[in-house]
Request: fold
Amino acid sequence: MDRYAERQEVPTDPTTGKPVINTVAAVAIAPSGVGAELSEYVAQAVGVIRESGLPNETNAMFTNIEGDLDDVLRVVRDAAMALAGQGYRTGVSLKLDIRPGFSGQLEEKPRLVAELIDEA
Reply:
């Protein structure tokens, strides 16, 4: 794969024949109208994400998830439903980086940035 190419060939999963559409998602899920502290509710959504088995990491603002586009969107839906299913009005902020042919980007992107900083 050429990291700098604007367009990549889309690989196919040999077992399913389905295109492999790798996606990195940054998602924040929280209810409205429950008070000033949201950690208890955010933890419920993050718990669903962690249980999904997809690579993920949580920081102060978002949880990043990586996997096939369909799987990532399913996990985001399930995590949102952890709160919405309890009757809470639930907000979801979602940003997707859909990059066919690439994987391991949760580790690779920070590594590349660190490498560029070290070269400067």
In short: The chain is about 35% helix and 25% strand. The chain has one domain: 22-119.
